[in-house]
Amino acid sequence: MSQQPDLMDRIVSLCKRRGFVFQASEIYGGLSSCYDYGPLGVELKRNVKEQWWRAMVTSRRDIVGLDSAILQSPRVWQTSGHVEGFSDPLVDCKNCKARFRADHLEGDACPSCGQVGTMTEPRAFNLMFRTFMGPMEDSAATVYLRPETAQGIFTNFLNVMNSARLKPPFGVAQIGKSFRNEITPGNFVFRTREFEQMEMEYFVPPDEEDKWYEYWIQERFDWYQRLGIRKDKLRLRVHGDDELAHYSSGCTDVEYQFPFGWGELEGIAKRGSFDLGRHSEASGVGLSFFDEQTKERWTPHVIEPAGGCDRTAMTFLVDAYEEQEVGKDAKGVADVRTVLHFDPRIAPITVAVFPLVKKAGMPELADEIEGRLRVAGFRTFYDQKGAIGRRYRRQDEVGTPWCVTVDGESVDAEPEQATVTIRDRDSMDQQRVRVADVVDWLRDKMPN
Ligand code: ATP
Known about the structure:
Elements: H1 5-17, E1 21-23, E2 35-37, H2 39-58, E3 63-65, H3 74-80, H4 82-85, E4 87-92, E5 99-101, E6 123-126, E7 130-132, E8 142-144, H5 150-155, H6 157-163, E9 170-179, E10 194-204, H7 209-226, E11 234-238, E12 250-258, E13 261-272, H8 274-283, E14 289-291, E15 296-298, E16 301-308, H9 309-320, E17 321-328, E18 334-340, E19 351-355, H10 362-375, E20 380-382, H11 388-398, E21 402-406, H12 408-412, E22 419-424, E23 430-434, H13 438-445
Parallel strand pairs: 3-9, 19-20, 19-21
Antiparallel strand pairs: 1-2, 4-5, 4-6, 7-8, 9-10, 10-16, 11-12, 12-13, 13-16, 14-15, 17-18, 21-22, 22-23
Helix pairs in contact: 2-9, 3-8
């Protein structure tokens, strides 16, 4: 496996320089492994969520959405097994005091100080963040920040099924923040303590479980590729029996080959009737389905595709990143441009509009075109400062698929005949398009 740590450093530095991701609380020295998304990062993440929501909810008839609270009754987490069992094995190095997740260690030398055989026996460390509700800081007031969004879907099973008049197979999707007090966060936004999840619980008749499991594995694997992630960087990994949660009879991860190795993007799990069964038992409310036709009552089984928004956004960044040699200068020195080859649906800015120079009516026409594109729903950017070549490079670096430039020809022609150039980020080709056709030209180029 090729490891390219400095590539990751260059991507992190681009993220900061161009406003994708900043260290949280930076002016106070930062808070470890917490990140803030800047103006471009927030658009990138919104696009990831928008594409997921489209694929999972709005393009289908069988899945609806939900937005449940981060704070839930502590009984939810007692019943789901999180209070007792949502823990990772923690070990300490007796020599340098560094802490690690035992299942992430290879061999018995400490990754921090290099000493062999200095690790303590593993002990279970619960990953849930605890806080207090109301003015009393005692155990009666303890609540947890949710470590996954899924439980809010299970506890609302009847509310959603009855209000939306659904019948299995159907799904409930949710995007929202989750919190885990990870022992070893790291690799930028890959593993953090506060992150956003995109989860969907698909409720099926028990005898259709395997069929839907296979369906969702394929569907989710394809989703990343449809949005331009390179196929050879993706793989499916089936969990071994020793990795499976006690309630699960199967789990397959979608993994991506990051510069630091293969990492999970999403898990597709068979959860059986475990969650609905446990919550029915503990709450006394029967979370089951009554089939009016057969007069039978049964508990649906669940297939869960659970992904991470931050990891997915980072995957798009890493996969799109290229340092490309585009020529040599007179002295033979390579001219390298940094470019993010985002799919246009993922790119934070869809189209940038420039006047070639800041005079002769060009800024006015460029401003008008940009306004028109904005009204048409494109994410636009206007820039009139500096050499045009440098402006193109700046857009390449943040992955803007198209740049529209207003030049002398544009302002000299009769208004109906006026044209602009549109430059393609990947090929760097430019073509002239009538001003009147710019909106339609770009609409035509946008993938569905
Ligand atoms: P891991 O084994 O890496 O700790 P997991 O198998 O516990 O992850 P799940 O509980 O299946 O993860 O969570 C579903 C998804 O949520 C993951 O595939 C990942 O994309 C995302 N996710 C989980 N934990 C984190 C985290 N600490 N930081 C960022 N994203 C996370």
